[in-house]
Amino acid sequence: MIRVFYRVLFVLFVIAGALRSSAQSTDVAAWVVDSELSESTITEDGEDIAFDFDERVGWGLSLNRYWTKSFSTEVAVQKYGAELTVNDFKAGDLDVTSLTLMGQWHFRRDTRFSPFIGAGIARIGGEFHFVDIVDDPEPEEISLESEVTWTAAFGADINLNPHWAITGEMKFVPWDAREKGGEQIDAVEVDPATFAAGVRFRF
């Protein structure tokens, strides 16, 4: 998967280089990020184990380079989390970090309302902090396996002036979380969908 990551990165920059024009510009954005994580149930030794998440708000940053009036490439990081409940018992807290690289297509960029769609690759991982109910008041932390996967997004900008815009986006990154070095069979389906709102500055 790492080779796929670098190949897609190379292809995106080749496309971007071929599309260079006088429409070049760059923007940076800061985001408030909410998420929706998948609930799932597994059966072990004949007993159902239900995983449920109580999501909490996180943050994100992005850098977007426009190569034409409509096409851009964006690199973005998001950090968010959730409280994990297993069969109605609080098991601990999940912290998620995702890094995405996308090609984006923007529509009606010269108007007040400009929607966009995007697709690309993501690297996603995180940590899990167990609740220790026995002796140690500090939660035990384990690292989760990072995974290279695909991502897709859509959203819209509300342009306030040539430099500032309010923006919103929905992004999906498939992910089965498992302990670093653990077996895939032990993975928990998380598949985060994020909903973000932010402010862009163009220069």
Report on this structure.
The two termini are 34 Å apart. The radius of gyration is 19 Å and the shape is elongated. A hairpin with a 4-residue loop joins β7 (141-159) and β8 (164-172). It is mostly beta strands. The protein has one helix and eleven strands, in the order αβββββββββββ. An eight-stranded antiparallel barrel has the order 1-3-4-5-6-7-8-11. Strands 9-10 form a two-stranded antiparallel sheet. The longest helix has 17 residues, at 2-18. Helix content is 8%, strand content 65%. The protein has one domain (2-165, 177-202): Porin (Beta Barrel), CATH 2.40.160.
Strand tally: 11
Q: What is the approximate shape? A: elongated
Number of domains: 1
Q: Widest sheet: strand order?
A: 1-3-4-5-6-7-8-11
In the CATH scheme, the class would be Mainly Beta
Mean pLDDT: 86
Helix content class: under 10%
**What is the number of helical segments per DSSP (H or I, 4+ residues)?**
1
Order of helix and strand elements from N to C terminus: HEEEEEEEEEEE
**Beta-strand percent range:** over 45%
Intertermini distance: 34 Å
- Uncertain segments are none
How many strands, which pairing sense, and closed or not: the largest β-sheet? 8 strands, antiparallel, barrel
Summarize the structure.
The chain is mainly beta and 203 residues long. The chain has one helix at 2-18; strands at residues 25-36, 40-44, 47-66, 71-86, 89-106, 113-130, 141-159, 164-172, 176-177, 188-189, 193-202. The protein is built from 1 helix and 11 strands; from the N terminus they run αβββββββββββ.
